[in-house]
Design a protein that fits this description.
The chain is α+β, with helices and mostly antiparallel strands. It has one domain: Chloramphenicol acetyltransferase-like domain (Chloramphenicol Acetyltransferase), CATH 3.30.559.10. Strands 1-6-5-4 form a four-stranded mixed β-sheet, covered by helices on one side. The chain is elongated.
Length: about 120
């Protein structure tokens, strides 16, 4: 089957419908952004199924491919974060933070460990 953005809504910027999950964690103390970034880069090595980017295979089907870019750890801007964009290194996962809160943003596609992943 050929790639059809009306069927495969992986990138938020392709359609107005977004399949992004945001989990908010509130801490007792302010976020240390340097420590958060270090922890995120270490954790992503332990959970490689979140370190993916969508691409097309030979048959023009959407597949998830490994993504070696660092996981984005960004200040929360109260604006829509576009997963898969250059701002997040092409990842379908990103972390944002502000004051005492951390948000884990991920595509439901990247949360399915059985999703087809090619190297």
């Amino acid at each position: 089957m050929k790639h059809n953005p009306d069927i495969y809504l992986l990138y938020e910027y392709m359609k107005k419908i977004a399949y992004t999950v945001r989990i908010k964690v509130t801490l007792r103390e302010p976020v240390d952004s340097t420590m958060l970034n270090q922890a995120a880069q270490e954790a992503i090595r332990r959970f490689p199924y979140f370190a993916v980017s969508p691409g097309l295979d030979e048959g023009e089907n959407i597949v998830l491919r490994p993504n070696a870019n660092p996981i984005a750890v960004l200040p929360e801007e109260n604006a829509r974060l576009v997963l898969g964009s250059d701002k997040v290194g092409g990842h379908l996962f990103a972390i944002t933070w502000r004051d005492r809160s951390i948000w884990f943003n991920f595509s439901t596609v990247s949360a399915v460990p059985t999703a087809r992943c090619s190297g």
